[in-house]
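From the shared-data thread, chain only:
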Amino acid sequence: MWERNFGFPRFKKRGRMRSFVFPQFKNSPVMGNKIKLPVIGVVAFRKSRPIPEDAKVKQVRIVKRVSGWYAMITLQWDVNVPQPTPHGKALGVDVGLTSMVATSNGLLVKRPRFFVDAERKLKLLQQRVSRKRKGSNNWLKALQKVAKLHEYVANCRKDWHRKLSHQLCEGMGMIFVEDLNLVGLSRGMLGKHCLDAGFGQFFNILEQTCFKRGVYFQKVDARKTSQICPNCQHETGKKTLAQRIHKCDNCGYTTDRDVAASQVVLIRGLAAVGHTVSQP
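Structure, as tokens:
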């Protein structure tokens, strides 16, 4: 069996597979607020956004979540995708755990603790799961409550990320962020808080929002952004987590530590696109 690359047989327990896909369609299965699926038939659904008339439905994936069933429709649409070019006002963005976002113009946004605030309730629900007989109906109901809480936390985080990304794009032509090693951050001492902040999801949503609103988006090198003075480019050395103020011994420039890092990100981003750099 091993010589034929079959591997070890897996135990196919109930509820393991949460999605299935219909790979191809001859005609469009979407008819208004209904979708016609093979074998299953016509199913009513809530269309979250209109489907273009000249787009072809290539495949449909049905996904089961705790809040219900979802249809993910993949389209083929022949359009020319515009690529935003560097223009207008520029903004550097630095992310962190004390302030979720610090911008080069001095904006500080405190990080909401979605998962940490829900931990107390999550602990209570998981205790109830552990006290139920495994496989019973009450055990399944308790699992549903845990899953609903996790989905609620994830939805709150994503909604906040979208609103913040639109706020940052307001009146901007270019946005530069750090190219962070997100996997390394998630495995560090503060991994739980980094995952709660959702830096990777925020960067993806910010990039999508910039594309929709015609704002140029680019990631820059994140090395030593908190160790360089944005005013004179003098290296100030490492700072401890308790040091929240940047003060340069060379030129005397003083500002918030995260704001100084975002200004360094802005300078690197402007240099990468060939624009002139103005000192803060």
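Residues 19-76 form one domain.
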